[in-house]
């Protein structure tokens, strides 16, 4: 029985095409894993202050991105070798991302500091110029700095951070509690009666 040459070509083409599609899928998974670990390295490092211990950061990033890895790398005989390679790859990404993460963290911190200094300044003015309760003064001061508040959202959006209104409210609650103590201290100093300066003693004129 002779097999038509056309059928042979079709069968060969399907085998080659299937292998190519499988390789393409594996490459896409590898790219997705690399993007995930790169983004996570920046995200995690931005939330670390001072010196960082690299090993737990590597583990944290891998646990977050492991589902993006090629499936055969996790189930095949090369699993241990692939995990060792992945840890080295993530450690390298952490080193490369550290300067950028530090600069982005500085931008985020500066935006937060600018916001606090703005409504702290307004709270002091209100505290000295009115007798409203401290919590009302603090809450009223929040609405006095819309540009600084908006800047916080913008800087986090620039770095693809998930900063929403709920996160902002939580931060503002912390800042308000800190500000309440300052308002009480400012008013306490305002109400202190200054000690009068002693009158100069009359000088005796020589006879």
Task: Describe this protein with a few key phrases.
207 residues, 7 helices, 0% strand, 2 domains
Task: Please provide a brief summary of the model.
With 207 residues, the chain is an all-alpha fold. 76% of the residues lie in helices and 0% in strands. It starts with a helix and ends in a 17-residue tail after the last helix.
What does this structure look like?
The chain is mostly helical. The protein folds into two domains: 20-100, no CATH class; 104-189, no CATH class. 76% of the residues lie in helices and 0% in strands. It is built from seven helices and no strands. α2 packs across α4, α4 crosses α5 (134-142) and α4 (79-129) packs parallel to α7 (165-190). The longest helix has 51 residues, at 79-129.
Question: What does the secondary structure layout of this molecule look like, with pairings?
Answer:
Elements: H1 5-46, H2 54-65, H3 71-75, H4 79-129, H5 134-142, H6 146-158, H7 165-190
Helix pairs in contact: 1-2, 1-4, 2-4, 4-5, 4-6, 4-7, 5-7
Mean pLDDT: 79
Tell me how many strands there are: 0
Give the radius of gyration: 32 Å
Integer count of domains: 2
Helix/strand class: mainly alpha
End-to-end distance = 149 Å
Low-confidence stretches: 12-20
Helix % is over 70%
């Amino acid at each position: 029985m002779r097999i038509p040459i056309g059928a042979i070509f079709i069968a060969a083409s399907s085998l080659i095409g299937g292998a190519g599609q499988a390789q393409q899928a594996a490459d896409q998974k590898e790219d997705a894993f690399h993007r995930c670990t790169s983004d996570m390295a920046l995200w995690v490092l931005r939330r670390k202050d001072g010196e960082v211990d690299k090993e737990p950061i590597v583990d944290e990033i891998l646990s977050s991105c492991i589902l993006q890895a090629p499936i055969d790398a996790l189930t095949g005989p090369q699993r241990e070798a692939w995990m060792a390679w992945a840890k080295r790859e993530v450690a390298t990404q952490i080193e490369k991302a550290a300067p950028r993460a530090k600069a982005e963290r500085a931008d985020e911190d500066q935006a937060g500091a600018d916001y606090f200094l703005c409504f702290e300044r307004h709270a002091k003015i209100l505290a000295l110029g009115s007798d409203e309760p401290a919590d009302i003064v603090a809450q009223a001061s929040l609405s006095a700095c819309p540009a600084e508040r908006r800047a916080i959202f913008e800087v986090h959006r620039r770095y693809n951070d998930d900063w929403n209104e709920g996160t902002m409210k939580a931060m503002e609650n912390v800042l308000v509690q800190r500000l309440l103590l300052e308002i009480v201290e400012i008013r306490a100093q305002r109400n202190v009666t200054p000690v009068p300066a002693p009158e100069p003693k009359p000088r005796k004129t020589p006879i």
